[in-house]
Design a protein that fits this description.
With 131 residues, this protein is mainly α. Helices cover 69% and strands 0% of the residues. The structure holds zinc ion.
Length: 131
């Protein structure tokens, strides 16, 4: 909507970057809130499994243990995701968001769209995975 009446160069690049970072920040905070809501649900479920253990038979207990192991595994995945989100939010605060943590090249915006928590450019990410 805003018309550039001056017709001169864009005011400042940091304005555009700031808008993108604000959007990413909103997305990251949303992801964080969803994960934290998940943690509460999962903790409730684990507590119920523990309470029931005295009553259930051997097979059910194994089921319960398996369910708990799965709950633990997904809790670990959530922890990792939450740490990645926190790291990305910190980088936004530090003004370093969108730049590769390793080589300082800009990260492809499409890559950031796909996963706002990435800290490495595609090249560095591939190198890290292969090494
Ligand atoms: Zn890189």
């Amino acid at each position: 909507m805003a018309r550039d009446l001056t017709g001169s160069q864009p005011k400042s690049q940091s304005v555009a970057i700031g808008t993108r970072e604000k959007n990413m920040r909103d997305r990251l905070l949303e992801m964080q809130a969803e994960l934290e809501a998940d943690v509460e649900t999962a903790e409730g479920a684990t507590a119920i499994v523990e309470l029931d253990q005295s009553k259930v038979g051997r097979l059910s207990r194994m089921d319960a243990m398996q369910a708990q192991a799965m709950a633990r595994a997904s809790a670990e995945r959530r922890d990792v995701a939450l740490r990645r989100i926190a790291a990305a939010l910190k980088r936004i605060d530090d003004g370093e968001y969108g730049w590769c943590q390793k080589c300082d090249e800009p990260i492809n915006p499409k890559r950031l769209e796909f996963d706002p928590t990435v800290l490495l450019c595609i090249d560095c990410a591939n190198q890290t995975e292969n090494s």
